Amino acid sequence: MGLAVSAALTLTPTAVAVSAAGGGPAPASAAAAGQVAIVQAVPGADVDVKIDGEIVESGVPAGEVLGPYPLSAGEHQVDFSGADGLEQAATIDVESSSHQDVVLHLPASVGADAVVTAYQTPVEPIGPGKARVLVAHTATVAPADVQVDGKVVFSNIANGEFATADVPAGEHVVALFPTGETADPILGPLTVDLSPRTVTMVYAVGDPADGSMDLVAHSARLAADGTLVPAMIGTGSAGLAGDIRVTPFGRPAS
Asked: Is residue 2 part of a domain?
């Protein structure tokens, strides 16, 4: 049986300065740095996070978004550890001036170990009155459809896959269903409001069997040319919008 949720969410990103201070990795030069955010998407876990062997945060609960951290171009290692034997590590490739999320999440298989997936933030030029979303399936469920304003707009997304779209800014109603189903949503319906010229990274997380399904999201403002506004991040819950042009499904960044 799906988890029925009804909520009103306003996605108007609040500008918050962020830095890698306090035990994090050494800051890279502004010109060379790529920006890496860490997303803790494992319900019920408190996780310690290291970047290149240095602790950046301890006891991180589910739903937290850390950073973004400025890292020099090249390979870096991100380690996660927690109770019940949770131990995961990933080597990420950081490009100069890039933006990406490194997400610790559950796989599709019930009871399997958590996995780490990286997603590049889409920062192409964006028009006025539009908002951009990346929605990723990082939950313990079979492939799913995303329904927006009563219509399926993202279909058959499997765990680890994602889709992106530029959408009309404003308020819409969103729900997540098992592929091909139109009753008993896994998550939602949720009323969401996307601000113009923002990019929002949205992760469906958890397991409907134990009531832990949720959305983890964060947003940042985009300039007209697609440039991400530096050192600013908004966090909260997120959704999609109707009447959209959807790019083909993609696999996450390696």
From this structure: no
